[in-house]
Amino acid sequence: MFALEREHFAVDHVLLGQEALDCLVTQVFDLVVLDVGLPDLNGFEVLKQLRQTSQVPVLFLTARQDEVDRILGLELGGDDYVIKPFSPREVVARIRAILKRLSPRADDSSTSLWQLDEAAARILFRGAALTLTRSEFRILSALLKHPGQVFTRAQLLDICDSDEDSFERSVDTHIKTLRAKLRPLDGESLIATRRGIGYYLES
């Protein structure tokens, strides 16, 4: 954790698998470092539950050197694997490599449709500037930064961070208006619904 903070990563640290799953429901993270040997849930079980709602990248930490465990971790949706004992510098390097590999490229067809200008609080789709409210901008920005990741209504409500948005159903209203604004540009279907969970941007 200290090695990551020294490299200017913002870090949240929990000791139990269930605590991690709870955090991932209410907060948005760019990457998860997951220890296989947790006191409550097995790290593989944590990842299995996590993958039901999120495609956030995961780096495993483990003392096991069995190749079966390594394959299992990656087949469940892990992005990389570090065996203990390890150098903190190696963990930092692997995290940077994962984030670089998964960051949107300018020539990706799924991302070239969009232009996000956070400094100007502006989003363009197919070259056309969208007229967005503050909450709509925040929701769409979050979806753009994490294409394919499912956001619950509670997460999007926190992202709005507005006194006017005090009920989770207000998120549905924002999604509806965002789709309406994208409809003339043939982008309505890109904001998809995961029934019973929340919303995500088609990647």
TrEMBL record:
The modification 4-aspartylphosphate is found at D35. It comes from the Bacteria. PROSITE patterns: OMPR_PHOB, RESPONSE_REGULATORY. The keyword Phosphoprotein applies. InterPro entries: CheY-like_superfamily, OmpR/PhoB-type_DNA-bd, Sig_transdc_resp-reg_C-effctor, Sig_transdc_resp-reg_receiver, WalR-like, WH-like_DNA-bd_sf. One of its GO terms (molecular function) is DNA binding. The keyword Phosphoprotein applies. Signal peptide: none annotated. Keywords: DNA-binding, Phosphoprotein. Residues 103-203 form the OmpR/PhoB-type domain. SUPFAM superfamilies: C-terminal effector domain of the bipartite response regulators (SSF46894), CheY-like (SSF52172). Residues 103-203 bind DNA. Residues 1-99 form the Response regulatory domain. This is DNA-binding response regulator CreB. It comes from Alcanivorax jadensis T9.
